[in-house]
Specification:
With 125 residues, the protein is mainly β. The chain has no helices and 11 strands.
């Protein structure tokens, strides 16, 4: 499975961005998807995750109400809508696929099998 993330960029605080992650290759299996981010000097953290059906979602506590994860299985694409962005949201954002955790969500990065290349999000104050 190959993942291509896009949609990052430079935005002012309070602005919005929509990240996309398109999966290709062996996408016939059901899989959960997650968005992670990593800022310089910090550990990679899971910001959101979504099950194959879309019925289960997870958000980091600090992001609830600002970020929304969704997916389009027909297009093999997951989205992360980010609103009311803050400078502390600045990071490289990665999308990832978990084959084992397709409906039960996981936030642990080592349970994800495939990773996108990352897209930079920079929020200026």
């Amino acid at each position: 499975v190959q993942l291509q993330a896009s949609g990052g960029g430079l935005v002012q605080a309070g602005g919005s961005l929509r990240l996309s992650c398109a999966a290709s290759g062996r996408t016939r299996s059901r899989y959960g998807m997650g968005w992670f981010r990593q800022a310089p000097g910090k550990e990679r953290e899971c910001v959101a995750a979504i099950s194959w059906s879309g019925g289960n979602t997870y958000y980091a506590d600090s992001l609830k109400g600002r970020f929304t994860i969704s997916r389009d299985n027909a297009e093999n694409t997951v989205y992360l809508q980010m609103n009311s962005l803050k400078p502390e949201d600045t990071a490289v954002y990665y999308c990832a696929v978990s084959l084992a955790y397709s409906e039960v969500l996981t936030t642990q990065h080592f349970r994800y099998d495939y990773w996108g290349q990352g897209t930079q999000v920079t929020v200026s104050s």
